[in-house]
Amino acid sequence: MVTIEQLKLNINKNSRLIGLDIGSKRTGVSICDDKRLIATPFKVINASNLATLILELKKIISENDIKGIVVGNPLNMDGSLSRTSQSIKDKILNISKVIDIPICLWDERLSTVGAFNISSQLDINISKRTKNIDKNAAAFILQGAIDYLNN
To answer: Which of 33, 83, 111, 117 is the most exposed place for a label (fewest CB within 10 A)?
Structure first.
């Protein structure tokens, strides 16, 4: 696992990244363009076990020439580590043993709320918003990280 600053040093300007919003059963995935300007919701991986998640991630990484992963870190509102944050770190450590590209954590506080609010402004009905919330939250996470990397 690397910091966002180390990620920036380990990738070139045209490196594509994926963003992950990891849940216990579903993981939202987003992907950015090769100029790292826009994060786009990509898919939801329905995987209740780590092995399935890793297989799906390897496939996405290979097919899309991904050079780094940004994972949402669910901190408490005061910035302290949450129980879920430790679980995410454990998963990332296990993923990093078999996927050899830089992985960093990014503060995801309010990412789900932000993704839900954006989709409500687009006049999308509630069932579609709920269905897509994981990949939209992943895009919200990745967009924050690429905006930081670009500034």
So the answer is: 83
The residues, any chain, with a CB within 8 Å of residue 41's CB and separated by 6 or more, are 28, 30, 132, 135, 136, 138, 139
CB 73 within 8 A of CB 107: yes
Look at strands 26-32 and 16-22 and give their pairing: antiparallel
Determine the straight-line distance between the first and last CA of the chain, rounded to whole angstroms: 22
Instruction: Tell me what pLDDT residue 51 has.
Output: 94
Q: For the chain, which ranges sit under pLDDT 50? A: 112-116, 119, 129
Distance CA 19, CA 3 (A): 14
Around Cβ 132, how many Cβ atoms within 10 Å?
Answer: 19
Domains delineated in the chain? 4-150 (3.30.420.140)
pLDDT of residue 115: 46
Distance of alpha carbon 47 from alpha carbon 44, whole angstroms = 9
Residue 27 contacts by C-beta under 8 Å, 6 or more apart in sequence?
20, 21, 44, 45, 47, 53, 134, 138
Global confidence as pTM: 0.86
